[in-house]
Amino acid sequence: MSGEADRAEDGGTVEVLIPLALDQAYSYAVPPGLVLAPGDVVQVPLGPRQTVGVVWERGAGRGGNLKAVTAKLDMPPLDGALMKLVDWVAWYTLAPKGSVLALALRRPPEDGPERPKLGVRLVGAPPARMTPARARAIAAAEGGLLIAKSALAEAASVSAAVIDALVDAGTFAVEPLPREAVAAMPDPDHAAPALSEDQAAAAAALVASVRAATYGVTLLEGVTGSGKTEVYFEAVAEAVRLGRQSLILMPEIALTAQFIDRFEARFGVRPGLWHSAVTGRRRERLQAAIASGEAKVVAGARSALFLPYRDLGLIVVDEEHEAAYKQEDGVAYHARDMAVVRGRIENAPVILTSATPSLETRVNAERGRYTHLKLPERFGGRTLPTLGLVDLRQDKPPRGRWISDTLAKAMTANLEAGEQSLLFLNRRGYAPLTLCRDCGHRFQCPNCSAWLVDHRFRRALVCHHCGHVERRPHECPQCHAQESLTACGPGVERLAEEVATLFPQARGIVLSSDFPGGTERLKTELMAVASGEFDIVIGTQLVAKGHNFPGMTLVGVVDADLGLTSGDPRAAERTFQVLRQVTGRAGRGEKPGRALLQTHDPAHPVLKALVSGDPERFYAAEIAAREAAGLPPFGRLAALIVSANNQPEAEAHARALARCAEAPEGVAVLGPAEAPLAVLRGRHRMRLIVKTERGVDLQAYLRGWLARCGKPKGSVRVAVDVDPQSF
Ligand code: ADP
Ligand code: ZN
Question: Looking at residue 195, what is its pLDDT?
Fold first, then answer.
């Protein structure tokens, strides 16, 4: 925190960082009567308007003719650790510091006190005139408990008007509901499980790291179902015992009711939840509880990294290999890596968990930079699923079908045994491409270099990159042939049709991010699947993650080759991770599971490593290949995406950048070439790749380069992506 020496008062100046896409703090004079210290939230003039900013440091000069700070706002100052994190993230990602500050700055509270939500209570006699609806509402309110109006309406299946009428009649009284707690105190000993020997050893090491209260990273690697969650809960429990705060970072979609229920079963209360659907006052209150230290455990998506913890004693990054941790828009940060940075700043231990760690993390563990804990077996004597390959060259489904005989037979057997199956296909929609059989016309996005995906349920053709939607026409827009449009290839919706034909008696459900009703409905359906309400789940990558479906005993991977054919050097790692994850959905309950992977290339090393059940083989080969190629983590990478409204401008600037690259020893600049999506949202994109040796100061090189080359003109923008996830 700031000391006396950092204070600035009348006659002095301060550097104020404004949460906009500005790289530098601006100098302001301190007006008479104000004393300002770093972290203080202030109001300052910016051009013609007033804006909020944070005092970043004391200024060197005298006030002179600078504009003055307007006021110090009545808000808690930004914590020193958070300021360091903002500085660090901005330095590392090359994002404007103000944009990073925007991730961390609390909004000023909304005006006026929070209006409490209202509930009703049964207090008086029934009204003279009774109706069946009124009777139901009264029956549901029996016992005189205070109930939210909406909850009562739902429980009694009556409209709000029925309840209002009963209030008017004096049968119900209206009272404010108590505020829902955002941060109840977890009980570390509420229901501690009996751990297996392996689990207990891992938990003891993690608990020790929490007690040591110093920075250090531990990789907790364990096969799916080995109890990683139970084990890191022990570390969280220890932090709670010590009165310190824990942050559990998760991919957004993993923050399901299932996780919350498990947390509640273990600790007796729900964790503080932080994700995009938490808004308004609840968000404000949680932030305040985090800043005061009252919220002991926060489970959140990546933005939870920038919350103002008062006393962070532990950070857990669940499923650390997840690509969802990388923010692609705006500040391009990787939440796992920044979690490690925050751990270092806070001097707190960091736990990374995964069944299939990223190569970066594996290498850090192997080289001793991270502690490596392993849970080699599933809990409770459960076995990992047996994996088999289906060679599609021999067992070829008929035209327009994607489920082989072998897979269909296995599904039939499962259905007869009353067990659940999962068909995995990482393709949303009905078909990835639509073309005209007569003239060959293909439907392309007008804004992107991408095909439009057929979504039958929505009756539309959709671009998965920019969201462009158009109606699927009846005739070909080019040759005007009727009935000539053909869907090419399968998406999950089309697969669902095939399932309905093959297994008309089965209860099937398609789960993808297109699920009508959004994430919340989706979470409900995931619970329904877990409780056995469906026989066959047809899903994208979404179902691969973090869910426990106890009745699921068969996983069919419809196209195991799908991820392997891209030119991306990370393709093998990604495919290995997702296939191991999704096949790991099978056999997590009482009964053992198995998985069948359909492929045209059964000799592929990734598939062989999966089937052999020996991930070490995969990691060893992949790590050796990366090392030989000087790719991360053995070398460093950054991508520069140059975009413009038209192709010539984008290309001209990309070429100009390449000309002033002046790459020193140990740095190679590749390109420019068309970016993988050459046109995105109407912007033409060129890409340069910077590849350096490990010891090179990549950020310093990039800064120098961009400064040398001058600001882009016209519609040209340059986006820097340090550690790009695909390259
Ligand atoms: P992972 O996170 O490694 O996939 P989980 O922590 O989800 O594993 O554990 C898998 C299942 O086994 C869960 O249902 C969990 O409750 C159960 N489980 C794991 N360890 C124990 C234990 N020691 N006692 C009771 N149940 C356990
Ligand atoms: Zn598009």
Answer: 96
Range of lowest pLDDT (29-38, 72-81, 518-527): 518-527
488 is in an annotated binding site: no
Tens digits of per-residue pLDDT, 51-74? 999 999 998 877 678 899 999 998
The pick from 197, 220, 223, 229 for probing ligand 1's pocket by mutation, whose C-beta has the most ligand atoms within 8 angstroms, reads 229
**621 alpha carbon – ligand 1 mean position (Å):** 30
- Helix or strand or coil: residue 708? helix
Task: Please give the pLDDT value at position 116.
Answer: 67
Q: What does DSSP assign to residue 278? A: -
Residue ID of nearest Cα to ligand 1 atom 15: 227
Ligand 2 centroid–CA 679 distance in Å is 8
Token digits of residue 377? 């077996």
Residue 432, φ and ψ in degrees, nearest 5: -75, -10
Evaluate whether 58 touches 45 at the Cβ level (below 8 Å): no
CA–CA separation, 619 and 621 (whole Å) = 6
Please list the alpha-helical segments (H only) found in 170-313: 197-212, 228-241, 257-267, 280-292
Q: Is the CB of 548 under 6 A from ligand 1?
A: yes
445 is in an annotated binding site: yes
Pocket lining: 199 vs ligand 1, CB cutoff 6 Å: yes
Highest mean pLDDT, choosing among 80-84, 103-107, 248-252: 80-84
Non-local CB neighbours of 129 within 8 Å, separated by 6+ positions: none
639-667 per-position pLDDT tens digit: 999 999 999 999 999 999 999 999 999 99
Query: With a 6 A CB cut-off, is 224 part of the ligand 1 pocket?
Result: yes
CB contact set of 405 (below 8 Å; sequence gap of 6+): 395, 397
| Residue 262 CA to ligand 1 centre (angstroms) | 10
Nearest CA to ligand 1 atom 19: 227
Other residues' Cβ atoms within 10 Å of the Cβ of residue 213:
15
- Relative to the CA of 375, which ligand 1 atom is closest? 3
| Predicted confidence (pLDDT) per residue in 340-384, tens digit | 999 999 999 999 999 999 999 999 999 999 999 999 898 888 888
Give the closest residue to 261 by CA, choosing from 191, 202, 175, 324: 191
Instruction: Give pLDDT tens digits for 504-530.
Output: 999 999 998 887 777 777 778 888 999
Burial class (CB in 10 A: 0-12, 13-18, 19+), 144: exposed
For the CA of 226, the nearest ligand: 1
